[in-house]
Amino acid sequence: MTTTGTGADPAVVGPYLADVLGDDAWRTPTVSLIAGGKSNLTYRVSSAAGDVILRRPPLGHVLPTAHDMKREYTAMAALEQTDVPVPKMLHLCLDPELLGQPFYVMEAVDGYVCRDTLPPGYADGPEQRRAIGEGLIRVLGDLHNVDPKDVGLGDFGRPDGYLARQVARWTKQWDATRLAGLESIDALAADLAASVPVSQRATIVHGDYRLDNTMLDPTTPGRIAAVLDWEMCTLGDPLADLGILLVYWQQAGDASERDLGFVVASATVLEGFPNRAEVAALYAERSGLDLSELHWYVSFAFWKLAVVCAGIVARVRFGAMVGEGFDGIEERIPPLVELGRVTLDERRLR
User: What global pTM score does this model have?
Assistant: First the structure.
């Protein structure tokens, strides 16, 4: 029994899975860390019985409302009966004694998780990349067309007042991690709070929908094998998902000021992927929603991402975050705020 990461001891995980999954072949697994660090930890558990994926909160102190395993599990279990592709949920353990935190186990889905590039030999043609972009929007539209009550998620959140609460929540976050010289964050926050649009309908909101939070089918570009990372899922305004997707969506020919607003690079810049205007049009067709106020949602997403970056900078300075990947984060904040400001004032996508 071996493991490449702490937090999921195979000597503990194996016998437990053997009992709950009803197969003694799980008793002597190998456990390897797939992804971890700042968010939930993801492990592949392999044995003679096959492979499963285990998800648990990060090591160390966890805020009471953060990294909610039951929330992720419940959302994906409910969506199994819909057109939204999610892994099959296998088991939820709420007992923190076993691994130090609650965790859940789900099926292992075959596919690619892509961020700034695509695997060699995969979707090499522009028409295949176009298909991936269209597939991402199709799935997002399908998610927002699910009636939460139909899948047992009618009480999964409080959609009334969702947008106003989001502005208030992230303003509070900014107040807790202020950086000098960024009064523009306060000004944009005030203007966003004063111009909150009326939500058209309440839907299941993923909360962080983007290319690298999905798994692409390895043989059919354009087919989304699974949507992952549901830890921020709730009921709210669906255009919040579109707003954050557009903020992350790079396209060929982005001007320097727009390029500075990207915290992470995205493969959507490659030839063939639809541009942001096309993404919005495809989503409107799929969802049936009016996008006349989309500028507010995109502005809010820029502003929220600026607040997130400010929080990271503050925690790094305080010594509460270690590791790599934080270089240049502080320099991204003013461009993000400016993009949010221009988007709100000019009422158009950037």
Answer: 0.92
